[in-house]
TrEMBL record:
Protein name per UniProt: Capsule assembly protein Wzi
Keywords tagged on the record: Signal
Residues spanning the signal sequence: 1-27
Amino acid sequence: MLNLKSLLRITFLIMSLMIVWTVPAWAAANQLATNIPLDSYIYTYLDKLDGLGYLPAMQTGTKPYTRMQAAGWVREMRQQAVAEPLPEYAQKMLNELIADLGPELAALDGAAGNGRLRLRELAWENTYYDGPTLKQNNKTKSTYQPLNINNNGYRLADDLNSILNLQIEGTWNDRLVFSAIPRLSYDRTEDVSADLEAGYFKTRLSNLQIQLGKDPIWWGQGERGSLALSNNMEPLTALKLSNLEPLSLPGWFKYLGPANATFFYSKLSDDRTDVKQPAFVGLRTDFTPGSNFTFAAGLTSFLGGEGHEFGWDDLWDFLTQKNADNSADEKWNTIAGFDFRWRLPQLNGLQIYGEFYGEDQAGSFPPLPSRNAGLFGVYLPRLTADGAWDLQLEAARTTRYWYSHWLYKEGYTHEGDIIGDAMGHNAKRYYAQLNHYLADGTRLGLHGEYVSMDQAATFPQEVSSIWLSYTTKLRDAWTLNATAGLADIDHLDYTAGKTERNYLFSVELRKPL
């Protein structure tokens, strides 16, 4: 029987294979492509069309997807839609994806790519925000901003926030691609400021994709959060290795199906007050043993840092997760586990997904998770026959061990934000999302969330939020996204009877260029 220990062993094996793997024959699908930003509509459309049953094999839980990866799925859905026509709103989604991913679809059909530098998209967002930013607890040096999480570490100021983003891309001869998203923002706290939200170069060596730069990463199946790695923090500058085409495993491992592996190496900030500049590394492998099931095993880890340097003589202890007896000799902190998604076509495409990760290790090789946390969700893509209504329910919980550590005392954070699930240490979260799709492609959403932080506190800090989302198409390819919500905070700062209310109203305009 295949247990978690075996899965993690396979993960290490796949990572080794990926690094040395070569594909002798060049293929169109093997081309480099830029990544799709995590806030793109493409993810929403792919998830919905997948839920309706137009995607033969499930998407993986490793994001961002590349544009070529998404184009492959769109081509499959376009072929499926010929045999089984889509509802009008879904056909509009598919048409928009086909138009947006046109160059990549042409490359899949064998067309030669044109190297050039281009402006891909402009986004202008204006948000009114009113309410406090919460301190989570004394176990992690992190904050939580109700109604504003998973936003690449960007914190809203009180009153007006205006943000202008440009997405710039370049491709040269299928050997080098470039992407950058500069951000210009204004608020009454910092006035005008400029930053680089994302920016990276990619090249390839046969089937090995090599990326260097700054780009958000999301590992897991959660909709509202992910236990190991999310874009709740400011993106790290990292070296990332991954395979372009899925790997086919030898022997009985072939029953695990196509495999996709990812490795990254980065450095955390040097302004930490615990250990300066520890490394941050991650390993993850996704498997798709059947068209209706996908799962992944992986780990992330803080390594070394000033005064706790990690050397080659520490490698075996790290791989076997032999922990030190005291904080002075400690050199790492690891989160490891697995996640999955299971689609049930016989139940109108119902999807069940979950994450199971450990904040500590059982001391074996590869590391087995212990002191575990979990996330579980259900997606019902067809509340009505045509899928014009859908529902998603999700619950997650971390324990008193999560995101804290005796050496890295700021916790599992970067620049004051939790690297994994924004709810943080020893917390629980419940989330519900109800969507309605209109024939013209307009989408209406009702969202509700309850978060309780630090369950060990006498009065856990509680946040109850509700918000409405609205997306519609305007003239000249403009898209309007609007959000309005409020959050009630009970036991603010873990104080009995202390309450507060946060408000958010946001309007965003996007246009491909």
